[in-house]
Amino acid sequence: MLVDEVIITVKGGRGGDGAISFKRNAQTAKGGPDGGNGGNGGNVYFTGINDITALSQFAYSKVISAENGVSGGKQNLYGRNGNDKLLKVPLGTVITDISEGGNYEINKLTEKLLIAKGGKGGRGNNEFKSSTVQAPRYRELGQLGEEKKIKLELKMIADIGLIGLPNAGKSSLLKALTNANPKIGDYPFTTLEPNLGVLNGKVIADIPGVIEGASNGKGLGDKFLRHIERTKLLVHCIDSGTNDVIKDYRTIRSELKNFNNNLLEKDELVVLTKTDLSVNKDLGDKLKKIKKLNLDCMLVSIINDESIRNLASKLLEKS
Ligand SMILES: Nc1nc2c(ncn2[C@@H]2O[C@H](COP(=O)(O)OP(=O)(O)OP(=O)(O)O)[C@@H](O)[C@H]2O)c(=O)[nH]1
Ligand SMILES: [Mg+2]
Fold this sequence. Notes:
Elements: E1 5-11, E2 44-49, E3 63-65, E4 85-90, E5 93-97, E6 103-106, E7 112-116, E8 147-154, E9 160-164, H1 170-177, E10 195-199, E11 202-206, E12 233-239, H2 245-259, E13 267-273, H3 280-292, E14 297-299, H4 305-318
The structure holds guanosine-5'-triphosphate (GTP) and magnesium ion (MG).
The site of guanosine-5'-triphosphate (GTP) has 24 residues, from helix 1.
């Protein structure tokens, strides 16, 4: 199953401790301080990757730490810095700092976001010698790294989103329009997680069906709607065999509104699906009703190649 939301804890590495040591060898019985500094703890960063499944790496490992710095040693030996941890998250991931607040987004492959800084290494006793204190017996301990609780949410960056009631034929359209091979079934809620396909470079997202009350948790709920928040165009699929096209249309619009008002502002295309199963006369009426709302509407059947070609051109034109 696609992991598209996860809460993890990230920790910068702890700094290494400074050392307490004094020079001792055959020639020097009581030498000066030579305790080295500890290394800094590693930082934790996020970066983008072109793989929508990448959040699955956090399904079982919820605490991620960078390496601790190494403690300082005798003979002014500095401890090594801890290695950084670079976490690759899918492009379109929204990162929320639950501990301190703040929202970041990873939208580019080149982006590198520092999320938890490693602790500074402690100074060894050599650093504390002065004209008055020649044999300091103290040093610093390494500092703890930052620790943050983080929510990662994937909001896919699709150009076009297919929406509609369950069983409206959304996945069938994705399959007909693109290289995707989603599961298709003659029952509601066949799609349980979003599918993506590509049409001439435009990414189309097919999401699970939405029903009345989805915003109150009915059906599969409405959290999948976040995957269409970034799209330019919404393709509203309505089964042409329905008794009431306007009611079906309004049901989905009202769930969109409850989820995020901005979804109503998006460019929209209504598609009456499965037209091969509907009686012609009836179709004309339904098309008229939709057009009366000043909406762009098309009649489509997956077994009518011409209707799919026309839909494809329309989508490319509008997105
Ligand atoms: N005859 C015919 N059947 C279609 C057409 N489009 C879809 N279907 C059928 O309608 C049923 C539902 O199709 P899906 O593509 O799974 O519908 P969906 O909207 O993705 O459904 P959910 O994922 O459950 O929301 C399947 O049995 C499809 O074979 C069409 O143009 N003509
Ligand atoms: Mg489906």
